[in-house]
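Hi all, posting the design record for the shared folder.

TITLE: backbone redesign
STEP: 1 of 1
STRUCTURE INPUT:
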């Protein structure tokens, strides 16, 4: 009786899999007639008997059908492999392979059923009748799911494009600030990203953005991180902020071509420091990436070359007047070269070189920087040092991951190229998967001016 049960349990899988593969093969079949003699010399007929699923070189325990294949090979002995001991489970089968495999498994089932008496068959019939209602219910649920999937496919936004959005809103409270910045303010930045992929590995991004002018932090270098900043198109105006296409070139090289807003740190694989993103102030991201400020309003091109899984070279070039026929793409530009060591363990590091040409045709002072981050498990220690013709900027601090569950925290200190001393402490908590809150305290001691202290609460919604 147990052998009979095993046979019956295997039958739906064998027949269902065989019929599915047969229909696929039939759909792909051409009108050309192929002789049986010709096929007898092909791989489709030259099969090798295997006694264990481990004999199949391309079948792994992680494969979704591993258990089913194991039963067909080891319990029923009705599954064969190719001469090279491969199964080739992702290719379509021929009608001859289907017939041979089905016949082999049916022979086993017939042998098992042959030893079954009438009482066993009556028991099977009763079980079929008892579970008929459940089978009908399952069939109805499958039909409903298929109808829902068809409706979703018919009404989806796009088969290639995803819409993503983010809103960052900031409540800024000055604790100690100059007279012009002593009032409580509220600022926002809203983004809509249209991300399109044609191959599954590339991305065409078109971004629309609107923001207040970032003018609430007095002498704080760069202002807030999640705002457009001065010169971004005016208050509340929607602008086309990003237009770029990134794509792989083989397995070790990726490239990006942009029409606007791509500059410096957009070309690098990593900015290394752990505060870039979680931090509220723009200084939380290495400020030297924004120091040149002479490109990015027009053409941008970049390459990321992975020599190994850990060593990556980043190259980027951006120009501000590529659409101007009087100036072209080789005036007012900046370029960046960064060599990264990105590990899965303790150390991430990079060395960066930047240079360019200003709008007056004169060169700008080059920038050389080094970045380092140490991942110590639940917390990271990171920072950078940069030099621009004797002017220095640096940053260092600590970021704590998984701080009290779904939250993180960090604090850093540093100095910009104007000798302003800057500090920030932040605490970020995920309210849910779409909404996070990040309160922070920002401190700046400007060179030659009084110190300033601000409290900020950033609220981020994403979908």
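Okay, here is what came back for every position:
SEQUENCE:
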């Amino acid at each position: 009786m147990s052998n009979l049960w095993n046979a019956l349990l295997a039958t739906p899988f064998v027949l269902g899999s065989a019929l599915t593969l047969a229909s696929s093969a039939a759909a792909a079949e051409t009108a050309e007639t192929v002789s049986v003699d010709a096929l007898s010399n092909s791989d489709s007929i030259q099969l090798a008997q295997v006694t264990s699923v481990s004999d199949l070189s391309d079948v792994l325990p992680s494969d979704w059908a591993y258990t089913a294949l194991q039963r067909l090979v080891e319990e029923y002995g009705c599954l064969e492999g190719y001469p090279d001991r491969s199964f080739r489970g992702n290719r379509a089968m021929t009608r001859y392979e289907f017939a041979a495999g089905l016949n082999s498994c049916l022979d086993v089932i017939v042998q098992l059923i042959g030893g079954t008496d009438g009482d066993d068959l009556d028991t099977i019939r009763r079980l079929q009748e008892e579970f008929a209602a459940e089978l009908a219910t399952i069939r109805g649920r499958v039909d409903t799911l298929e109808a829902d999937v068809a409706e979703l496919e018919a009404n989806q936004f796009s088969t290639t494009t995803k819409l993503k959005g983010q809103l960052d809103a900031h409540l800024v409270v000055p604790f100690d600030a100059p007279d012009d910045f002593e009032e409580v303010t509220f600022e926002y930045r809203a983004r809509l990203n249209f991300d399109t992929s044609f191959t599954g590995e590339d991305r065409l991004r078109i971004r629309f953005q609107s923001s207040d002018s970032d003018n609430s932090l007095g002498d704080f270098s760069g202002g807030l991180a999640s705002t457009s900043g001065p010169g971004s198109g005016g208050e509340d105006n929607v602008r086309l902020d990003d237009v770029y296409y990134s794509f792989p070139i083989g397995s070790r090289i990726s490239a990006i071509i942009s029409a606007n807003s791509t500059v410096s740190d957009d070309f690098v694989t990593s900015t290394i420091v752990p505060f870039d993103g979680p931090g509220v102030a723009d200084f939380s991201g290495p400020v030297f990436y924004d120091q040149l400020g002479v490109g990015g309003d027009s053409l941008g091109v970049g390459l990321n070359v992975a020599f190994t899984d850990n060593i990556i070279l980043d190259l980027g070039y951006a120009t501000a007047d590529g659409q101007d026929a009087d100036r072209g793409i080789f005036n007012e530009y900046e370029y960046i070269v960064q060599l990264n060591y990105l590990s899965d363990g303790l150390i991430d590091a990079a060395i960066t070189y930047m240079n360019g040409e200003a709008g007056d045709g004169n060169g700008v002072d080059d920038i050389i920087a080094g970045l380092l981050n140490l991942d110590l498990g639940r917390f990271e220690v990171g920072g950078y040092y940069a030099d621009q013709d004797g002017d220095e900027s640096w940053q260092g601090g600590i970021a704590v991951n998984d701080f009290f569950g779904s939250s993180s925290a960090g604090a850093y200190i540093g100095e910009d190229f104007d000798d302003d001393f800057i500090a920030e402490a932040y605490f970020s908590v995920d309210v849910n998967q779409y909404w996070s809150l990040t309160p922070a305290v920002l401190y700046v001691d400007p060179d030659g001016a009084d110190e300033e202290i601000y409290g900020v609460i950033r609220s981020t919604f994403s979908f």
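COMMENT: Residues 141 and 147 are 10 Å apart (CA to CA).
Let me know if anyone wants the other runs.
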